[in-house]
TrEMBL record:
It is found in: Cytoplasm; Nucleus. GO terms for molecular function: hydrolase activity; metal ion binding; peptidyl-lysine 3-dioxygenase activity. Its main location: cytoplasm. Its cofactor is Fe(2+). Residues 128-307 form the JmjC domain. It is an enzyme of class 1 (oxidoreductase). This is Bifunctional peptidase and (3S)-lysyl hydroxylase JMJD7. Pfam families: Cupin_8 (PF13621). The keyword Transferase does not apply. The keyword Transport does not apply. GO terms for cellular component: cytoplasm; nucleus. The lineage of its organism: Eukaryota, Metazoa, Chordata, Craniata, Vertebrata. It comes from Nannospalax galili (Northern Israeli blind subterranean mole rat). PANTHER family: BIFUNCTIONAL PEPTIDASE AND (3S)-LYSYL HYDROXYLASE JMJD7, HYPOXIA-INDUCIBLE FACTOR 1 ALPHA INHIBITOR-RELATED.
Length: 316
């Protein structure tokens, strides 16, 4: 491609996040004081792909009153659950020149609670973060304390959730910046979650690179080894940590402005599909989220186009 045309394409891609932000991205995540009707949810939030935090949407869930550590011990303490273990709290993240996945251990939930309460030591940082509908597959006894879907969201989206996940971990457990093709209804039951968000239109400023996948292995001595997953294809992932961005290496990231929000106990974050998110939490925070598969509509195709052009223009 002629250099002038390539320059024009890069300029257009760099202007795009700013134009999209001016038109449709809020400076902060707005709050609703009650759950919306399905029509309002679809019209005001899903269709324009805008996040919001909804209060009083979970107040009928027994979990809000019941889910203390002592209740979890008494009801599901002996149930074995899958726990991600990492040396530094980062599971599924770029470490050096690898995309590193966590070591996984099966532990009775009471052991996880012992560690969270400081009664037992365990090497590394623990996070129950398995995303395979973990509430249904690992802790089905707790389902009657929540709901199997969010009725107004299911009606708006015309489908039931693909997954219902349970999250519980240490304050040091961090979810690295990424995006999903799900409409995400993220419900905090106790504690707080801290989200750092970017709209999908920020893609031209968000770097991706291809990494050799690897997995942490926890040795008998309690140290960690990084073992390559030789049979797996390379993984495209975001190398940048938005908390300490390496702006010398990724200078265009200085042009984006993240939205930050805290979701507190009893609140529900609607996180629209394709929004980039980085997540931290208070120690022992308990959350449940519903992933509804997104519509693969024209919005999705436009995102794919921006993604392809960003790569083709050599931006990231
Ligand atoms: O809560 C977290 O740590 C991560 C949540 C997340 O990434 C998601 O729901 O897609």
């Amino acid at each position: 491609m002629a250099e002038a045309a390539l320059d024009a394409m890069r300029r257009a891609l760099r202007d795009f996040p700013v134009a999209a932000r001016d038109l449709s991205v809020p400076f902060t995540v707005p709050y609703l004081d009650e759950p919306p009707t399905p029509l309002c949810f679809y019209r005001d939030w899903v269709c324009p792909n805008r996040p919001c935090i909804i209060r009083n949407a979970l107040k009928h869930w027994p979990a809000l009153q019941k889910w203390s550590f002592s209740y979890l011990r008494a009801t599901v303490g002996s149930t074995e659950v899958t726990v991600a273990v990492t040396p530094d709290g980062y599971a599924d993240a770029v470490r050096g020149d690898r995309f590193v996945m966590p070591a996984e251990r099966r532990l009775p939930l009471s052991c996880v609670l012992d560690v969270l309460e400081g009664q037992t030591q365990h090497p590394g940082v623990l996070y129950m973060q398995k995303q395979c509908s973990s509430l249904l597959t690992e802790l089905p006894q707790l389902l009657s304390d929540v709901e199997s879907h969010i009725p107004w969201a299911s009606e708006a989206l015309g489908k039931m959730p693909d997954a219902l996940n349970f999250w519980l971990g240490e304050a040091a457990a961090v979810t690295s910046l990424h995006k999903d093709h799900y409409e995400n209804l993220y419900c905090v039951v106790s504690g707080e979650k801290h989200f750092l968000l970017h709209p999908p239109s920020d893609r031209p400023f968000i770097p991706y690179e291809l990494y050799t996948p690897a997995t942490y292995q926890l040795t008998e001595e309690g140290t960690f080894k990084v073992v390559d997953e030789e049979a797996m294809e390379k993984v495209p992932w975001i190398p940048l940590d938005p908390l300490t961005p390496d702006l010398a290496r990724y200078p265009s990231y200085s042009q984006v402005q993240a939205l930050r929000c805290t979701v507190r106990a009893g609140e529900l974050l609607y996180l629209p599909a394709l929004w980039f998110h980085h997540v931290q939490q208070s120690h022992g925070c308990i959350a449940v989220n519903f992933w509804y598969d997104m519509e693969y509509d024209l919005k999705y195709s436009y995102f794919q186009l921006v993604d392809s052009l960003t790569k083709a223009a050599g931006l990231y």
